[in-house]
C-alpha cells in the first residue's frame, strides 16, 4: 500500500475509533467568540491595562501544526483571519481529553476554549481548557505545509492551494476589493447596476465563437453570452441613462495565460457621452481603484514600473501600426490589398481573415507588446467596429479606443452607433464578408444579426458612450501575476 494510502487508512481507523466512543466527528456548529486575529488583538489591548485578567476566548480553525511532547502539547490552528498557537495540558483538560489529542491530525478542524497568555518567547497563545473536534480530515495535506508546487494541481484543487500556499488567498481578497471599488466608483457616478441574460437567442456584441445549449421546455437553441453590450444598450433606449453590469461572459476559443473560456467583464453605458468622456472616466476610475486597493497609482508588473496616473497617452491606431510595422491601413482599403502588403513585408497571412481581423492581428503582434505604460489606441477602421459611430470628419474610422497596460488590452470603448439603418447595414455587410465560402458550422460566430436589438434601436437611442473592461486582467496587473489562472479561482482545465 502506498504511503499516502496508508496515511488515509490510519485516519479512517481514527474516525472509526472516535465514532465507537460515541463522539460525533462532524458536529453541526460551534459557538466561536473571536477569530484568531480578533483574539490576538483582544489580548494586546488587555495587556496594556494593568490588573486586568487574561481574556477568555472560544476559537475555531484547521490544525496546521502539532507538537505532542509527553505531558504537554502545542497545536497551531488557522482560520480565515490568520493563525494562533494553542497550549494543552492534562492539568486543565483531564487525562482522557488530553489523550484524545492522539486521535487528531493535521488538517482536522477543532473548536477550542481557554485563556490567552503570552509564552516566554513572546508568542500569544491560548491555554486550552476544553476542545471539540469539528471535522475529521481524511486526506493528508500536501507536502506537510511546505507548499503545493504542482501548478496544475494548484489550479485543479484550488482548495489545497489556498490551504498550502499562504500567498494565494491575498490575491483573491485583492480581486474582491477591486470589484467592490469599481462598484463604489460607478455607484457614486450615478450608474445603476443591472443584470442581463446569460442565455441568449443571439449572442451578439462581439465577434467570438459561442457556447451552445438547448432549452428543452422551449425546444430551442440558446447561447451563452459573449458580451453584455446589446442588452445594456436596450436599457439606455428604455431611459436608464447610466447602467453597468459586472458579469461572466463566455467565448468558446483558445486558452492561454491571458485567456480563459469564461471571464469577468465590466460593461458600462452612459447616455449623452462619447468616447472622450469614457476615456476620462477610465483614467479616473482605474486610479481610484489602485489607490483604494493597493494605496498607490504606481505598480510593478513583470519587472516593469507602471504609472497609472492620468493623463494616459492617446495614440492614433493608424500612426501606431505605421510606426511599428510600416503599414498604413488606410492605403489598403480592402482585404486583398492589405494581404498583399503584409506578404510584401514577409508576414504570415491567414487567407480566411478579412481586413478587420488582419488589422486586429497587426495590433496584437506589432503594437500591443510595446504599450507598457497606460495608452489609449484611438480611432479604428469601421470594419473592425460594427457597433461604433463614425468619426465626425466623415472618414472610414470610428470613435473607438482600446486601453493597454503592460502589453495587455484592458479596456475597449466606443461612441456607440445609434443610427438603426446604418447598424443594420453594417451587420448585413459583416455577415456577407464572412459567409461566401464559410458555413455556419465552420464559423459559428457569423450569425450576429440581433433583430430585436435593431428594432429597439428604431425607437431611438441617445448619443452614448460604452465601455468594457476585463476584470481578470486588471487584477493580474494589480496583483503582479502574469497568468490569468492565478487570479481566477477555478480556471478552465481539460477534464482528466
Structure write-up:
The chain is an alpha+beta fold. The chain folds into 2 domains: 3-140, OB fold (Dihydrolipoamide Acetyltransferase, E2P), CATH 2.40.50; 169-312 and 373-486, BirA Bifunctional Protein, domain 2. The chain has 15 helices and 18 strands. The chain has helices at 3-20, 36-47, 90-93, 95-99, 151-156, 158-164, 169-188, 229-237, 275-294, 317-325, 335-344, 355-367, 420-434, 451-458, 471-479; strands spanning 56-69, 72-78, 83-88, 109-118, 124-135, 192-193, 199-200, 212-215, 220-224, 242-250, 262-271, 298-301, 304-307, 313-316, 375-381, 397-405, 408-415, 464-470. An 8-stranded mixed sheet has the order 6-10-11-18-17-16-15-14, with helices on both faces. β1 and β2 form a beta hairpin. The longest helix has 20 residues, at 169-188.
Short description:
The chain has 496 residues and is an alpha+beta fold. It folds into two domains: 3-140, OB fold (Dihydrolipoamide Acetyltransferase, E2P) (Beta Barrel); 169-312 and 373-486, Bira Bifunctional Protein, Domain 2 (BirA Bifunctional Protein, domain 2, 2-Layer Sandwich), CATH 3.30.930.10. The protein contains 15 helices and 18 strands.
Principal-axes shape call:
elongated
**Secondary-structure content class:** alpha+beta
| Number of separate domains | 2
CATH fold label of the largest domain? BirA Bifunctional Protein, domain 2
Number of strands: 18
- Using the 3D structure, state the CATH architecture of the largest domain: 2-Layer Sandwich
